[in-house]
Each structure stands twice: as structure tokens, then as C-alpha cells.
Design a protein that fits this description.
Strand content: 15-25%
CATH superfamily of the largest domain: NadA-like
Number of domains: 3
Shape: globular
Bound molecules: 1,3-dihydroxyacetonephosphate, iron/sulfur cluster
Largest sheet: 4 strands, parallel
Number of strands: 12
Order of helices and strands: HEHEHEHEHEHEHEHEHEHEHEHEHH
Strand order of the largest sheet: 2-1-3-4
Distance between the termini: 41 Å
């Protein structure tokens, strides 16, 4: 039996589902029950009523969100080290300090945060719904973190005053994209359109034809009539884009944009995760209860 056959057999036997983020290795995406962005993965985890186990092939904060939203299911992450560095840039005690500095202002936290920090906020958001979430609040000023670039995007699109916390919160992978390099590539591929993630710098976002979450970029590519795309997000997404659009060409705006944390997961680790039921993702009840409120409030906002 091949590794893929073994994974399929165990998945069935244990009533398990495999959820994978759009940045996962091609061979993982190809056998996953669902491949998507952060909000898509959250929703799918909640929709899978019969599943007893979720193998979450992504990074820590995504698996944690699934565990918080699905207390009746066992959630496992195949690699212990798969941690999003940005999610660790805004510890809960810092959120508390910012709240003290700006009393009464609502706090919106990107899902790329740890559960303890989520427990301190009013509502969570992803890159797909950040503008909707902020617009849903009856407030002209909003505390927003931890991604300064997504905060900039939200400020532009909502016109509200955004207090971006911490002072320097960013995704190391998306910081690798450069405006000058993309302009240079546009000269090389004059008929290409540029689609980037809002974790890219304001300069990069400003020269893009489309800015959106990973799944929104996939949707844009499916619906657009353009034949060539310069893609400004982690290179793992190219596999899905090519699979869904065999007649179109996708060029990474920087081919070194690899999130090493996302890439820790392998087929072998997924097999071991299923077989040995490791590594369990658990959140203490007192934290989960508060974080769940912020996540459920986000999920309740229509797509
Ligand atoms: P998406 O929700 O757009 O998939 O983004 C998650 C992420 O970590 C981007 O770096
Ligand atoms: Fe975190 Fe950036 Fe990796 Fe996304 S790409 S998981 S934000 S480090």
C-alpha cells in the first residue's frame, strides 16, 4: 500500500478529515478533503458534522481556531514546529496594554494570533473579511492587529481610524515582495495582471490589480479573462491556481516567497498524525470560551 492509500484508509477508519491551507505542498493539497484560506478552513471545520478527527495541515493559529470552534472534535497538527511568526508578535499582555491606552475602542484581531490574544478581542477577522468585520462595528476608531499591512488595507477601504498594533507586526514571507521587482516583471510580462495578498506592503498592494485572501486570489483568477498573472503571495498557491486554470499562466512575483512553517507538513507527517493521533491541539477552557466568542462573531458575518 502506498502512503496515500494508507492515509485514505486511516481517514475512513477513524472518521477523520484532512483540511489543508492553500500554501500546503502539492501532494497534500491533492489528497485533502478541502483546500482553502483561513476563513474557508474555519467554516469547513464547522460544517463537517460527522467527523470525529480533524487533521489540520497548516500552521498553529489555524488549527487552534478549529479546535476552539469545534470542542466536540479532536484536532491534530502534523508538525509541532508549524508556527506562524506573525501570530507570536502580539502576546495577550500587549493587547491588554493597548486596550488600557485606548479605553472603549473595539479590538479586531486577525486570526493570525494566538488563542490567548483572541480571548482579549471583540471580534476576529481574516484577510478575506477584515473590511466587512471593521465596517460591521459601530465605531469610527478601531484597534487592529497584528499585521500592519492588513491594517493599512482596512484603513484605506473603510476610511475609519485604525490603531495598528503592535508597532511592527508583519509576515516575513510577504515582506519579501518588492514593488520595484513587480514593476520590472510587469515590463517583462505586459499582458499580466497582478494579484497580491494584503499582507504585502502598501507599496506592493498599491500597484496590484487585485488584493485579497488566498482563496479570493483563486476566485479572481478563475473569473478573470486575463491569461497571465503575477502572484504576490506564498508560492504554494501556484499549484492550486494551475490546477484550476490549466489554460492560464501564473508567475510568482518572487519565487523565494516560501513560508517554511507551512512547508513543515509532509505526507509522511500527515500519515503519522492520523496513525498516532498526534499532535493534539488543545486550548484551556477559560481561554477557549472567550476566544470562541470572537471567532463566532466573525463567522456569523455573512460571506
Ligand atoms: P489566507 O486567510 O488569505 O489564506 O491567509 C493566511 C495567511 O497566513 C497568509 O499568509
Ligand atoms: Fe504566517 Fe506569513 Fe506563513 Fe501566513 S505566510 S502562515 S502569515 S508566516
Amino acid at each position: 500500500m502506498t502512503l496515500v492509500d494508507e492515509i485514505r484508509r486511516l481517514r475512513k477508519q477513524k472518521k477523520a478529515i484532512l483540511l489543508a491551507h492553500n500554501y500546503q505542498r502539492p501532494e497534500i493539497q491533492d489528497i485533502a478533503d478541502y483546500v482553502g484560506d483561513s476563513i474557508g478552513l474555519c467554516r469547513r471545520a464547522m460544517e463537517e458534522k460527522d467527523a470525529k478527527i480533524i487533521i489540520f495541515s497548516a500552521v498553529d493559529f489555524m488549527a487552534e481556531s478549529a479546535a476552539i470552534l469545534n470542542p466536540d472534535k479532536k484536532v491534530f497538527i502534523p508538525s509541532l514546529g508549524a508556527r506562524c511568526p506573525m501570530a507570536h508578535m502580539l502576546p495577550a499582555e500587549d493587547v491588554r496594554l493597548w486596550k488600557k491606552k485606548h479605553p472603549g475602542e473595539p479590538v479586531v484581531l486577525y486570526v493570525n494570533t494566538l488563542a490567548e490574544s483572541k480571548a482579549e478581542c471583540d471580534v476576529c477577522c481574516t484577510s478575506a473579511n477584515a473590511v466587512k468585520v471593521v465596517n460591521s462595528l459601530d465605531a469610527d476608531t478601531v484597534i487592529f492587529g497584528p499585521d500592519n499591512n492588513l491594517a493599512w488595507n482596512v484603513q484605506q477601504k473603510t476610511g475609519k481610524k485604525i490603531i495598528s498594533i503592535p508597532k511592527d507586526g508583519f509576515c516575513p514571507t510577504h515582506l519579501l515582495f518588492q514593488e520595484e521587482e513587480i514593476l520590472f516583471l510587469k515590463e517583462e510580462y505586459p499582458d499580466a495582471v497582478v494579484a497580491v495578498h494584503p499582507e504585502c506592503t502598501p507599496e506592493v498592494q498599491s500597484i496590484a490589480d487585485f488584493v485579497g485572501s488566498t482563496s479570493q486570489i483563486c476566485e479572481y483568477a478563475r473569473e478573470s479573462s486575463a491569461k497571465k498573472y503575477l502572484i504576490g503571495t506564498e508560492v504554494g498557491i501556484i499549484h492550486r491556481l494551475e490546477k484550476e486554470n490549466p489554460d492560464k499562466i501564473f508567475i510568482p512575483a518572487y519565487d523565494g516567497a516560501v513560508c517554511t512553517n507551512m512547508k513543515l507538513n509532509t505526507l509522511k507527517r500527515i500519515y503519522l498524525s492520523l496513525k498516532e493521533e498526534r499532535y493534539p491541539v488543545t486550548v484551556p477552557d477559560s481561554v477557549a470560551r472567550k476566544a470562541r466568542k470572537a471567532l463566532e462573531r466573525m463567522v456569523a458575518i455573512p460571506k
